[in-house]
Amino acid sequence: MHEKGLTWWQLALIGIGSIIGAGFFLGTGLSIRIAGPSVLIGYVIAGVATFIVFASLAQMTANDPQSGSFRAYARIAFGRSAGFLSGWVYWLSGVLIMSSEIVALSTFTEYWFPNVPLGVFAIAYAALGFGINFLGVRNFSQVESAFAIVKLAILVGFILFGALFIFGAIHPTAASAAASPGVHTWFPHGVKGLWSAMVIIFFSFGGIEVVGVTASELKRKEDIVKTGTVLLVSLVLVYVLALYLVLRMAGWRGLNEETSPFVTALSAFSIPYMDSIFNLVIISAAFSTMVGALFSISRIIVSLAEDGDAPRGLAALNRRGVAWKSLLLTAAALAVSIGCSYVLPNTMYEYVTTSAGVMLILNWILILASYLKLQGRSDEQSKKPTRRRTIASPAAAYVGIALILIAISGALLHGNERVGLGISAALIIIVALASRLVAAKHRH
């Protein structure tokens, strides 16, 4: 029997567990190096855009709950090809994100066990992640909620520690490069620096779709709005406060993409076992993000199979409501992706990770376009006063599309991001061609 009955706060915690990953704890060093202190402005902008995307998805879910979430609405709004494109692009980006998180997990774990091959850790983490998903929705939500609480607790603890530093209650034991990011230093590389960092910043919010996909498990479907509001407001506040304190404690010039900004900021205080503690935090962050991505992309495959855009057998669920055949397909793709990550040079690995982020937020544009199309249609066809409303609006959707396009265009300004953009464009073209073939097959 399919297990249902998540509360809004459980879904919010699943969202936090799926969003806060190694990309934030480790990858923010790269965005800070590119943008400087203006990265804080970038996180507010990305938070606003993410909120708009979620609000639009929430309204579509409240008005017409669909098990396929955003890809189902793309199909309803623009036809079979759009649903095919949305679903498979999201699945591909999810597989790439999972492989990057697993490689990161293995690398971080090697810190304690330098003589163990990375492949052993990769297999172990992948098996554990798939095992959690095979437990079913209820157990999955409990595990993800636990990871989310750990990550939030660490970030809140860091913010409290930073506050003590700001107010002079504690002092660094080593010479510190700390300096307040005054107004004159907000844009050390100009607006171009912030613009080119926006794709990386947006990627810190990747995973919001997990909430949309999992919304079908809510006890009260109308609670999806409350879930998203609490989730994203909390996330933006924690992100911005934490990064502001990193900048105050370490100064933006002292940060790089090879070391966690949080480790760098705390290193001046000579805290015992700090490296191991934050290594453990980053591992928990990466693992829960990987588990959440696996859950959502396996559900998307089920939706694709039910609509005939994937083999019908992939829609099979077991007694626990687990899409086990979809999980097996994802496992096979993940094995290939991880293998490529180890064989290809580090720069190529970075390109693949970037392309996954670009595909993820390109899907957000399709979510907003679907909302605009369906909103206009429902306004024409129904004027019932009882129709559910959320905080989404067409004007906000257009603003969201503009912000996402600006962020993606910023990738053209940075060499490695340009390559990632090219890879994502190639993959999308391949999926689009496949969608045409499937559509032609169904016509005949």
Could you walk me through the main structural features you see in this protein, from its secondary elements to its overall organization?
With 444 residues, the protein is mainly α. The chain has a single domain (8-443), classed as Up-down Bundle (Amino acid/polyamine transporter I). The protein is built from 17 helices and no strands. Residues 175-184 have low confidence and may be disordered. Pfam families: AA_permease. Residues 12-413 form the Amino acid permease/ SLC12A domain.
Short note summarizing the structure:
The protein is mainly alpha-helical and 444 residues long.
Unreliable spans:
175-184
Strand tally: 0
Number of helices: 17
The helical percent reads over 70%
Distance between the termini: 37 Å
**CATH level-4 homologous superfamily:** Amino acid/polyamine transporter I
Helix and strand run: HHHHHHHHHHHHHHHHH
**CATH topology assignment:** Amino acid/polyamine transporter I
> Total domains, how many?
1
The chain-level structural class is: mainly alpha
| Sheet having the most strands | none
Per CATH, the class reads Mainly Alpha
Which outline best applies?
globular
Membrane topology: Multi-pass membrane protein
Subcellular location: Membrane
Organism: Paenibacillus taihuensis
Pfam families: AA_permease
